[in-house]
Amino acid sequence: MIASCPFHYAGYRSLDEALIARVIDIFPLALVTRHGATGVIASHLPLFRSADKTLFGHADRHNPLLGDGESFEAHVVFMGPASYIPPEAYVNPQLPTWNYVAVHMTAQVAPIVDDEENFAILQQTSERLGRRTDSSFMAERADPRVVRNLPGICGLRLTPSHVEGRFKLSQDKPPEDRAAALAWLLRQPDPEAAALLQTLLDR
Predict the structure, then answer these.
(1) What are the phi and psi torsion angles at 150 (to 5°)?
(2) Is 0.70 topped by the overall pTM?
(3) What's the number of CA atoms in the CB half-sphere (13 Å) around residue 30?
(4) By CB neighbour count within 10 A (0-12 exposed, 13-18 middle, 19+ buried), where does 179 fall?
(5) The domain 10-202 is classified under which CATH number: 3.90.1170.50, 3.40.710.10, 2.10.50.10, 2.30.110.10?
(6) What's the pLDDT score for residue 11?
(7) Beta carbons within 10 angstroms of residue 59's beta carbon
(8) Nearest residue to 112 via CA among 100, 122, 104
(9) What is the CB-side half-sphere exposure of residue 84 using CA atoms within 13 A?
(10) How far is CA 27 from the centre of its chain?
(11) Cα dist. 201→28, 29, 188, 190, 191 in Å?
(12) Tell me: the pLDDT tens digits for 81-129?
């Protein structure tokens, strides 16, 4: 049984369903973690909300996260923007901190092996992500790429038992410092991060 891990200062915790939904919709890539027979297993998977408050996604059928193919309990984390906030970012003297937006969830994960259900998940996934990225791609049943890869895909249906937002944005500071910290968080990405991504791409 995975605990709901409710710890955080009250000012940073949120059970606001609308805000939590917005975070998941904008940052759908989740870290899904379970306790398996050989220890902790974790995988990054894009997950999407359904109207009935469940979530769906898919994984490679060989992903060890799926274990024996039975339903399992997992801890799921969606991460939004995050940044170190140095003292010079503030208007008033403050100590440095780290601000971030995250959603934590405990959920029962049910693997789906039916090809038609999994194809429907592929279609919904491409539709959701296409709307966000101006991509015209839609999964089509006759597409040779879909035909070739569908047997290796396992759909997932997640039923949450506990969900909370953890929105740490210097709420404990005066208004002018909250605004300054937010401006720092929203600045352009660190050039070193861009260089790292290029290095990883060139390997």
Answers:
(1) -55, -40
(2) yes
(3) 28
(4) middle
(5) 2.30.110.10
(6) 84
(7) 20
(8) 122
(9) 5
(10) 6
(11) 22, 20, 20, 17, 15
(12) 899 999 999 999 999 999 999 999 999 999 998 999 999 999 999 999 9
